[in-house]
Amino acid sequence: MVTRQLPRPAEVFELMKLRKPDLNSRRRRLSAALTIDDLRTIARRRTPAAAFDYTDGAAEGELSLRRARQAFEDVEFHPDVLRPAEVVDTSTQILDGSSALPFGIAPTGFTRLMQTEGEIAGATAAGTAGIPFTLSTLGTASIEDVRSANPTGRNWFQLYVMRDREISYELTRRAADAGFDTLFFTVDTPVAGARLRDRRNGFSIPPQISLKTIANAIPRPWWWFDFLTTPKLEFASLTSTGGTVGELLDAAMDPTISYDDLAVIRELWPGKIVIKGVQNVPDAVRLVDLGVDGILLSNHGGRQLDRAPVPFHLLPKVVREVGDDTAIMVDTGIMNGADIVASVALGADFALVGRAYLYGLMAGGRAGVDRMIEILRGEIVRTMKLLGVQSLGELEPRHVTQLARLVPVPESAEEAAETAPRPELPREGEAKGTTRATRSRPKSRAATSASTRGAAPVEAVEESAGGGDR
Ligand SMILES: Cc1cc2nc3c(=O)[nH]c(=O)nc-3n(C[C@H](O)[C@H](O)[C@H](O)COP(=O)(O)O)c2cc1C
Q1: Are 118 and 366 in contact (CB under 8 A)?
Q2: Smallest CA separation from ligand 1 atom 3, residue
Q3: Whose CA is nearest to atom 8 of ligand 1?
Q4: Which of 127, 205, 207, 340 is deepest in the core (most CB within 10 A)?
Q5: How far apart are CA 298 and CA 68, in angstroms?
Q6: Which of 39, 53, 300 gets mutated to test ligand 1 (max ligand atoms within 8 A of its CB)?
Q7: Ligand 1 atom with least separation from CA of 355
Q8: pLDDT tens digit sequence for 426-440
Q9: Atom of ligand 1 at shortest range from CA of 137
Q10: What's residue 254's pLDDT?
């Protein structure tokens, strides 16, 4: 029997916590964002559809991007218990310099189009947080302006080798003179990928004003106000404007770039050099043999060859082959700090984030980029504490299983028979009829820990299916 009473004002008052309303709408908006997905939702509301879609979209059917994000969601973590990690150290050394977190900001083109503060917001936020910022060849702030905005932080430069080689060589020299310490040579863009959203939106640089864009502008007046009242959108390097992004890229990129270009760039560049867009083990091995300082496993955020391999899946194999000799980095699909922790556990030295940064930028300019870093930092710290590790160096492959969703089709009947799941006698606590993936080759550390837990790790299934780098 419940005893009831009349509500007592003093008790009700105790329950009521009246918070002072924050009159700063940007701060209010950003503090309500708890995840990168939340930042994306705000970004979408505030940015014209064509600019948002240019950022959010990928190539063709956007399968690569979806698969890359799915692969991170398909991570299973294995925490150790009763291992206190009250304080965790998220700092790391990368390419002879330090970073407060195991990720940096990826190079993105046309950034001021998404939000007028553009690269300067990215560079200053990165500098304040103690992480590297990468400026794109197609950046909308100059090399020198980025350097002035982030004078003591680490600035990296991303290079496209263009048809007119002299433009690329000149940019390389300027970046070196401005003290950028690392050059990312992007190699996955011999031609532009088919960004269908841009074609459907009639997206062009600069944006064309049409009835559709005017209708789209009405609920987003601040974007247009910023766009029309700040200096004209210009590229740090390219003088040509006009046409869709694809047309612009095609005009600038050169389908004939090759290892010969790498040799020339290495001669010109005094700092560290990383190859961005490596997508198989043999290429990684060849590049390391040529003496590059780093490899960035990336499919350009799914914006180039759709259905390209998921970089996160490629990671353990590349680490096994060349991880001791060179810095291995990864990008594409990172939406959560836990994705970065999983990458480090599987041997990545560093990660880059592209869209996560741009969602933050579109959601709130510089403050939005700060919020993006804060969200990822919080997720990294919490994941490490829950795993029971105090530093990034303590993360090991055994902490992570990559669960397999799509696996290669076996090449022969024998392989098919070998890889078919076999019924096993149920272990204690396992349901009858449970099957486990079998392996035909020696186990790696990651696969061993995973298979003992009854999961089907990506590596294990791929190897037993003969699915190496095809
Ligand atoms: C809007 C946008 C523009 C990009 N521009 C460039 C670029 O100019 N050069 C380059 O090497 N990569 C570029 N990228 C690819 C990023 O550097 C990075 O590889 C990718 O965004 C990582 O995937 P994520 O967006 O899922 O984090 C761009 C990506 C986006 C989303």
Answers
A1: no
A2: 108
A3: 109
A4: 340
A5: 10
A6: 300
A7: 25
A8: 444 444 333 333 333
A9: 8
A10: 86
Radius of gyration of the chain (CA): 24
For residue 353, the CA-to-ligand 1 centroid distance in Å is 8
Q: What pTM did the predictor assign?
A: 0.88
Distance from the CA of 36 to the center of ligand 1, in angstroms?
A: 16
Task: Check if 379 has its Cβ closer than 6 Å to any atom of ligand 1.
Answer: no
Extents of the domains making up the chain:
31-394, 412-423+436-470
Q: Which two tokens stand for residue 20?
A: 């002072």
Q: Which residue has the tokens 């392996």?
A: 439
CB 246 within 8 A of CB 195: yes
Is the CB of residue 138 below 6 angstroms from any atom belonging to ligand 1? yes
Alpha helices in 102-210 (DSSP H): 111-114, 118-129, 143-149, 165-177, 196-201
Separation of CA 338 and ligand 1 centre (Å): 20
Give the pLDDT band of residue 250 (cuts 50, 70, 90): confident
Pocket test of ligand 1: the residue of 137, 140, 186, 303 to mutate, having most ligand atoms within 8 Å of its CB, is 303
Cβ contacts of residue 357 below 8 Å, gap of 6+?
105, 106, 108, 122, 369, 372
360-417 confidence digits (pLDDT tens): 999 999 999 999 999 999 999 999 999 999 999 999 999 999 999 888 888 888 877 7
As given in the structure block, the two tokens for residue 48 are: 């014209």
pLDDT at 16: 76
Phi/psi of residue 13, nearest 5 degrees: -60, -40
Residues marked active site are found at: 300
DSSP secondary structure letter of residue 34 = -
Q: How far is the CA of 397 from the centre of ligand 1 (A)?
A: 27
Atom of ligand 1 minimally distant from the CA of 55: 1
- 400-402 and 75-77 as β-strands: parallel, antiparallel, unpaired? antiparallel
Determine the topology of domain 31-394 in CATH: TIM Barrel (3.20.20)
What distance in Å separates the CA atoms of residue 362 and residue 407, rounded to the nearest whole number?
A: 36
Q: How far is 294 from 96, CA to CA, in rounded Å?
A: 11
Q: Is residue 415 exposed (0-12), middle (13-18) or buried (19+ Cβ within 10 Å)?
A: middle
Distances (CA, A) of 152 to 141, 258, 443: 18, 34, 45
- Nearest residue to 239 via CA among 320, 171, 307, 300: 171
